[in-house]
Amino acid sequence: MFRTAKTLSILIAALTFGGFAPVRASTPGLEAKVLEEINYARTHPAEYARILRDYRNHPYEGQTSIEGPAAMDEAIEFLERQAPLAPLKADLKLARSAGGYARDQGSEGFTGHVSADGTTLSDRMRRQDVWSMLTAEAISYGYENPRDVVRQLIVDDGVQGRGHRKVLFDSMLRFAGVGCGPHRVYGAMCVIDFSGALIAR
Questions:
Q1: Which of 16, 20, 76, 135 is the residue whose CA sits 20 to 30 A from 67?
Q2: 94-150: per-residue pLDDT in tens?
Q3: Mode of pairing for the β-strands spanning 187-195 and 134-141
């Protein structure tokens, strides 16, 4: 995470994959369903805690974890304390930013938030005419089910500081766009780009 006079950007990627094998290309409508799932977690955190608790007690066969049950338990406790937040509004420009990056990165099998040519989140947003004092990006690899994508980002197993979780529950973020697609190495990926209040230009 870093600050500048103009922008706060939170650049984090989910690089832990829960032990699942790569999956096929993303399913139709996945982007809208991922945003819907994020908003459900934001607006009903206590209910989402129960969903995670059930998952913890009935994990998928073959699932592995870097931290073990402790990461899931921590996420459940966080959700139980978290106050409900306003849902994020879908934004077409953010969706184009996220979708373009998913296509570019997925085709090459790269990870992270900086393109091979040095393009950053700020660069990608400016290309889509997105201007905001607060921006963020989260990336999930290896999943195409919206609940799996969001659970990965909330639990943040193996991610120091739980940056993805902080972004999903940042009360200052107001808009989001999702782009999902195939990934050459991990089978699937979803990019979620966020912003605070948008500045008209």
A1: 135
A2: 999 999 999 988 888 787 787 777 888 889 989 999 999 999 999 999 999 999 999
A3: antiparallel
The distance of Cα 157 from the centroid of its chain, to the nearest Å, equals 13
Q: In what order do the strands lie in the sheet with 89-90?
A: 2-3, 8-13, 134-141, 187-195, 175-183, 89-90
Give the type of residue at 139. I
Provide the 3-class DSSP secondary structure of residue 45: helix
Q: Are 87 and 35 in contact (CB under 8 A)?
A: no
Q: Residue 7 has what pLDDT?
A: 36
Q: How far apart are CA 156 and CA 166, in angstroms?
A: 10
- Helix 146-155 crosses helix 45-57 at what angle (to 10 degrees)? 100
Which pLDDT score is estimated for 114? 74
